Amino acid sequence: MRLDEILKESVTFGVARLENRDGQKVYSDPFVKKEMEKCWVCKGTGQETYGGYEDADGKHHPESKHTCGMCHGKGENEEWRTSYNELNVANGNAMEIQRMLGIDPDYSGAIKHDDLPAFRRHLIKLKNSDISGHTQEPNTEVGKMRAYKDDSGQSRIGKGATMHDAGRSHAQVERYIDSLLSLMDFAQKN
């Protein structure tokens, strides 16, 4: 398995405006625009490669190429890009960032413009204090041995998934604080 085939789950911290559209209040990002970019799946080749490996049972899976399902062979896609630096972090780190801000963790939410100065002061205070309580050591959790049936119905014994948590270093927490301060500065100015 290639690193770019791993499930990617994350939360993005950005800037938005609350607008009224057809009587509905919605958040939008007025600083975003569409740009053509090299396809992240095929790396701009227009072709996806499958196989080319040997599985745990010793079975060889030959390599084959197919038209990229993301860009449909064009090698590039239209992507939404902002004119400011968003902060995109793993779900666990997003929850900790919200705890750092004194917010109940959730996968979505908003800080109102009027509240930005108070949150900014809180982040500056946090930056100048001991942030070790927001760090986390890396760890690996190995799946337990279990009995299961494979895709063909054959009984097997094997381990479950191994979960790797990269942790959260002191420098990483400092970087999150700096990124949030930059986002808040941009939001206040714009």
Structure description:
By secondary structure, the protein is of the alpha+beta class. It has a domain at 89-189. It has 3 helices and 14 strands. Helix 2 (116-127) packs antiparallel against helix 3. 9% of the residues are buried. The mean pLDDT is 90.
Main attributes?
190 residues; single chain; alpha+beta; 3 helices; two-stranded antiparallel ribbon
Topology:
Blueprint: E1 10-13, E2 17-21, E3 24-28, E4 32-38, E5 47-50, E6 53-54, E7 60-61, E8 64-67, E9 76-82, E10 87-90, H1 91-101, H2 116-127, E11 139-141, E12 145-149, E13 155-159, E14 163-165, H3 170-189
Antiparallel strand pairs: 1-10, 2-3, 4-9, 5-8, 6-7, 11-14, 12-13
Helix pairs in contact: 2-3
Distance between the termini: 43 Å
* CA-based shape: extended
Q: What structural category characterises the helix and strand content? A: alpha+beta
User: Mean of residue pLDDT?
Assistant: 90
Short description:
By secondary structure, the protein is α+β, with helices and mostly antiparallel strands. It has helices at residues 91-101, 116-127, 170-189; strands at 10-13, 17-21, 24-28, 32-38, 47-50, 53-54, 60-61, 64-67, 76-82, 87-90, 139-141, 145-149, 155-159, 163-165. Helix 2 (116-127) runs antiparallel to helix 3 (170-189).
